[in-house]
Design a protein that fits this description.
Order of helices and strands: EEEEEHEEEHHEHHHHHEEE
Low-confidence stretches: 247-265, 281-289
Shape: globular
Largest sheet: 9 strands, mixed
Structural class: alpha+beta
Radius of gyration: 21 Å
Number of helices: 8
Oligomer: single chain
Number of strands: 12
Strand content: 15-25%
Distance between the termini: 35 Å
Amino acid sequence: MDLPDKFVASTEFGLFQIKITNRDYISIGTGNDCVQIAYSVKKNTATLDWLETEKGGCEETGKSIHGKDTIAMVDLGLTILRQMYPHVNKTIYLRDSSKFICILPDGRRYHISNSIYNFLLKGKTYYQDRFNAEPVDEFSKSLIDMYQKTWTTTNVPNDFDFKNPEIELLLEPIKRDSKTWQEFFQNIYKKYGRDSCTIIAPWYLEAYDKIARLGAIHGSISSDWCFNLDTRPMVLYTITKTIIKSTTRKNFSYDPYIFGGGNGKHINFRHMNYKKYKFKQSRTRKMRI
């Protein structure tokens, strides 16, 4: 299918600017490239190179894209890929290194690994959960199985360090009523909803490492994944505008954030005030991370 190099696609979940570079690179976004899909002519394979919605600029009217709309936006890019290259290899590759921003009690924005956070809450990484993705090699698949087994069969040690005395007091009743890591994290989410990241941020990497040690697991969850293109739905869209000349990009402002996982600025979580933090989410809110 012959498509313009730059156009606006109208879908039921928003308007999106599509840019096709050299016929082998598809990007979606107005102020920022929120989705990038690369196609290799030589290998006839495609890679989901980039997925970023936190900075905004994904949708033409300024609509915030998150949750199901994020997945639909990726599927829009994959739909365009299939239209351009109907015979593309059905295995789509990706590097699962995505992060999301969590607001801390002092207002600072903290970057958390999507895959590790999603695994601790659900027992699956972000792309494993949303795209039914699998690690690209058998060794990595066996590691995932070992992490899941340990997550569902072992409990939080009594001497586990939550990095903050106020967090420890908040989580003590939940820890006492949970028999496994799985129950522990799921009970945290039942109580704190999407605010769970605020209370988990200081110690989630420690929990991930502890699960590995309890299961005698030598290796980390792989960042190299793949999924089957045929399992993804086609997205209906209409071209509302073909862009011939370059347009002025919109400026989107966002607060600086702090990298989690040992990168960037160091945060002293032990002295952070959690007593006065007002958790906003209800106990019944559905999971959406």
